[in-house]
Design goal:
Structural class: alpha+beta
Helix content: 25-40%
Radius of gyration: 20 Å
Strand content: 15-25%
Number of helices: 9
Largest sheet: 10 strands, mixed
Length: 313
């Protein structure tokens, strides 16, 4: 039985030159921690039961070439970036460092900034536009595919119960406003799964290239979310360190110019094709995140995979 593959993933397999061979850049390294620049398309760390290539495994291989890897000195996760998010990321290099960093993360990290391109053409954004700067504090839930989203009042899970939610706080600032898109600068007061994507999408500003939240544009065939800045006080030396990797230059020019006649995204084109011979009903309008309709075979397979993941947690 073959696993369902997202249309954007299939496109990258066919067109992304480094698909499956993405490289990381080491920005800083000492005996306790390492800071890298992670490319889009590379998982940060493996999920339970997975043996796929990740930033963690690529970094371990680089350290192995240096001759510095052993049972006590190797990459340990302290935070994550979504697979399709690029940018600055830290790993600990010992278990002691991992525990110290994770226990003091909110004290040691003085600034962590993201840049993102959000669409501003949806009805929600026009009806109640965000101020140019402020906080988004909606609680987050996860759907059956582990995608974070902001549930609406009355939304229930597959068992008919209200979604379990967690609190989340995102600070945003609009740093470039164009005719169809906005370049946002964002920081997280909490670090929940898909937090930035879910918060902006809930207010009518889905990120360009975000298949999970059904964006209308995909100008660079990637999620337009980049971890630009990581600034912190070193947990062992006390030294103040700042690492900054700018987002691609074309993001700003794209926002300034606008995209009045965008190409239809792969996921929305598929939806239209699949719906030609099906009458749309009211229930379809309330599907969380407008998830792609799956066949019963695909649904049962997805449920099997999901159940396996739960058992391994």
């Amino acid at each position: 039985m073959s696993m369902y593959v997202k249309s954007s993933t299939e496109y990258k397999r066919q067109h992304k030159a480094d698909y499956g061979r993405e490289k990381i850049e080491i920005l800083y390294q000492d005996q306790w921690l390492v800071v890298i620049n992670k490319p889009t398309g590379l998982l940060s760390v493996p999920y339970p039961g997975s043996k796929v290539r990740t930033a963690q495994s690529v970094l371990e291989e680089l350290l192995r070439h240096q001759g510095t890897v052993n049972n006590k000195h190797k990459p340990y996760v302290v935070h994550r970036l979504d697979r399709d998010t690029s940018g600055v990321m830290m790993f600990a290099l010992t278990e002691q460092a991992q525990q110290k960093i994770m226990n003091s993360w909110h004290q040691m990290v003085t600034e962590r900034l993201y840049h993102a391109i959000g669409e501003c053409s949806s009805k929600a954004a026009k009806a109640q536009p965000l101020a140019e700067e402020g906080w988004i504090t909606d609680s987050l839930a996860q759907n059956s595919h582990n995608v974070g989203f902001v549930p609406k009042q009355g939304d229930v899970d597959k068992n008919g119960k209200p979604f379990k939610t967690v609190s989340a706080r995102t600070h945003y600032k609009m740093i470039e406003k164009g005719p169809t898109h906005i370049l946002f600068e964002l920081s997280l007061d909490t670090g929940k799964k898909n937090q930035i994507r879910a918060h902006l999408a809930a207010h009518g500003y889905p990120l360009a290239g975000d298949e999970e939240h059904r964006s209308f544009t995909d100008p660079f065939h990637r999620l337009c979310l980049h971890a630009r800045t990581l600034e912190f006080d070193h947990p062992f030396t006390g030294e103040h360190l700042k690492f900054q990797v700018p987002e691609p230059e074309e993001w700003s020019s794209y926002v300034k110019k606008g995209d009045l006649h965008p190409e239809k995204t792969l996921w929305r084109a598929e939806n239209i094709k699949g719906e030609k011979n099906h009458k749309k009903n009211a229930a379809d309008d309330r599907v969380i995140l407008e998830e792609k309709r799956l066949s019963q075979k695909q649904k049962s397979h997805m449920n099997f995979i999901e159940a396996g993941k739960r058992r391994q947690r």
